[in-house]
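Interim report to the steering committee. The following record documents the input for ADP-ribose pyrophosphatase YjhB (NUDIX family) (133 residues).
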Amino acid sequence: MSAIGPVPVRCVGGILHDQVGRLLLVRRANDPGRGLWSIPGGRVEPGETDSVALVREMREETGLVVRPGALVGHVVRGRYEIHDYTCEVEGGSLQAGDDAAEVRWVDEATFAALALTDGLADTLRGWQMLPRC
């Protein structure tokens, strides 16, 4: 830890809607947020760009191959600086893996009923990225 505080950990997240407007969420298998639902993503490893990290993390957590899109926004949660991007599916098969205990497409009603990571609903609402059905 330096005199000006800990160095933030750069992370990426993938915001992905299906053709009917459902949002892809994962239930986290590890801390922080174990057991809570969030968008898939994780740490950017040394030497990776955000795009490369996002493709890797989405594949590891969801089984899907994605094409990263635009940066939607970023948030700071503790020591994590998370940059969230839209994504489009290019291939793969949906299945929970790596840090995800479960993965699923959720509609508005399901989203509202899930135990979400802190600030997720408000952040996605502010970015107009909530489920659309």
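The chain has a mean pLDDT of 94. The committee is asked to note this result when reviewing the revised timeline.
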